[in-house]
Amino acid sequence: MANFREKIALRMLVKYKQITKPERLQSLGNAREIGIVYDVKSTEIQSLNAIVHYFESLGKNVMSLGFYNEKESNNLVSDAKTLYFNQKDLNFWKIPKQEQVSVFTNKEFDFLLNLDTLGSISLQAISTFSKARTRMGKHFDQYNFAHDFMVKSDVTSTDDLFASIQKYLK
């Protein structure tokens, strides 16, 4: 049943039409808004804080969206810069539907970094729906439509994925 559900959800995401992006890629120096999508359980809080600090030290506004893969988001409180969603915020196909997700995906980030290292359909959907100018993340064959720039790598940690992406941001 889960495999069938994933196949249908994947078809739904593939059919989603992205906004056209006529402008060229911009450099990190010209970017102002950065969005970060991550899995709360597989991302160390210190790693996330270091990534956010990196961009803030460059004068960038950073907003993050964390996915907590449980029915309840225990002790996680959203604020202006950090939003969370959980299983209750997913539809039957495991695609996010919650209002907080719409706030994040409708924001026109200069760069969106998807720090998903496992290929979660819920996190890849965020990249797919995002109105960011440049969407970056790890390469997954089944989600090649979800990003504008993908890093093909065997990394399994958020730190290693960010280090791989960071090489190309400069």
Describe the structure.
- This protein is globular.
- The mean pLDDT is about 90.
- The chain is α/β, with parallel strands linked by helices and about 170 residues long.
- It has a 6-stranded parallel beta sheet, sandwiched between helices.
- The N and C termini lie far apart (about 45 Å).
- The protein is built from 5 helices and 6 strands.
- Helix content is about 30%, strand content about 20%.
- It has a single domain, classed as Rossmann fold.
- It has helices at about 1-15, 45-55, 100-105, 120-130, 160-170, and strands at about 35-40, 60-70, 80-85, 110-115, 135-140, 150.
Short note summarizing the structure:
This protein has 170 residues and is an alpha/beta fold.
Topology:
Blueprint: H1 2-15, E1 33-39, H2 45-57, E2 61-68, E3 82-86, H3 99-105, E4 111-114, H4 121-129, E5 134-138, E6 149-151, H5 158-169
List descriptors.
170 residues; Rossmann fold; 6 strands; globular
What value does the Rg take, in angstroms? 15 Å
Mean pLDDT: 90
CATH class: Alpha Beta
- CATH topology name, in short, is Rossmann fold
Which strand order spans the largest sheet, edge to edge or round the barrel? 3-2-1-4-5-6
Structural class: alpha/beta
What summary fits the major beta sheet?
6 strands, parallel
Count of helix runs? 5
CATH architecture designation = 3-Layer(aba) Sandwich
What's the domain count? 1
Helix content: 25-40%
